[in-house]
Amino acid sequence: QVQLVESGGGLVQPGGSLKLSCAASGRTFSNYAMGWFRQAPGKEREFVAAISWDGISTNYANSVKGRFTISRDNAKNTVYLQMNSLKAEDTAVYYCAAAIIPIVTRRTADFRSWGRGTQVTVSS
User: How do residues 45-94 score in pLDDT, each as one tens digit?
Assistant: First the structure.
């Protein structure tokens, strides 16, 4: 089991940027893929981005492609989500998740450990 703690959320104006961080502990971080998901009020949780164990492969939801960048630092047991050109529709609670496989995946079933989430609000 791995413990995940997200940080970096907040209130930002449309067009602004935020960088989320997720610190992991309790398992060999570098062996597994990591991902970010989000859930807006009244909506189901949805995939945002994922990264392979070595950081080489990434995958993004179409809605964030070209605006968000996922990265990881295995020496620091941390995964990041850089969010640029934020829109009101990006408002949601963002969750970090740890996969049980090393290759990049967007399937919710491949992620077994979840953080508590961090709120991102995009509003003027």
Answer: 999 999 999 999 999 999 999 999 999 999 999 999 999 999 999 999 99
What's the number of CA atoms in the CB half-sphere (13 Å) around residue 59? 13
Q: Please, are residues 4 and 98 in contact by the beta-carbon 8 Å criterion?
A: yes
CA angle, 35 as apex, 32 and 41 as ends, to 5°?
Answer: 150
Distance (Å, whole) CA 5 – CA 100:
18
SS3 89: helix
Contact criterion met (CB below 8 Å) for 35 and 97: yes
Burial class (CB in 10 A: 0-12, 13-18, 19+), 116: exposed
Residues 6+ away with beta carbon under 8 Å from 119: 9, 10, 93, 94
CA distance 91 to 21: 17
